[in-house]
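Thread amino acids onto this structure.
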């Protein structure tokens, strides 16, 4: 094998390894207190996003919150310098996606059980299997 070909293949291999490491690394770069997506039953009037058929792959935090006993998803820790957020899926992304599906379902302010959400200062009303929930991100 020629020297230039060997050097090219080694360089290509290093780039592939670096990209694979960059894809796996952000999930391990958490810092600070975790954020949780919470789903609180509510009687608030207004339009809601129907999430009865929401995909667990597209909305993992939402489906965990809706199916859990305490209405809370597993924790998500932000990364330093914003690096992690660029490469991973977060509860903030899910709240924004729900609000994009139906902007009228967005609600502002604090819920009965805590402070305002960290995502956009409020939450989103959703309907899941005939019941209404207020979905928002909290940090506890």
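Threaded sequence (140 positions):
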């Amino acid at each position: 094998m020629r020297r230039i070909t060997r050097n090219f293949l080694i360089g290509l291999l290093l780039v592939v390894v670096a990209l694979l490491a960059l894809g796996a690394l952000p999930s391990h770069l958490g810092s600070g207190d975790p954020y949780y997506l919470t789903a609180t039953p509510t009687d608030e009037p207004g339009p809601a996003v129907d999430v009865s058929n929401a995909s667990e792959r597209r909305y993992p935090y939402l489906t965990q919150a809706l199916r859990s006993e305490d209405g809370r998803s597993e924790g998500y820790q932000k990364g330093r310098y914003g690096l992690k957020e660029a490469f991973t899926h977060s509860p903030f992304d899910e709240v924004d996606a729900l609000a994009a599906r139906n902007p009228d379902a967005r609600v502002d302010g604090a819920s009965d059980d805590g402070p305002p959400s960290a995502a956009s200062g409020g939450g989103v009303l959703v309907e899941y299997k005939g019941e209404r929930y207020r979905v928002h991100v909290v940090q506890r």
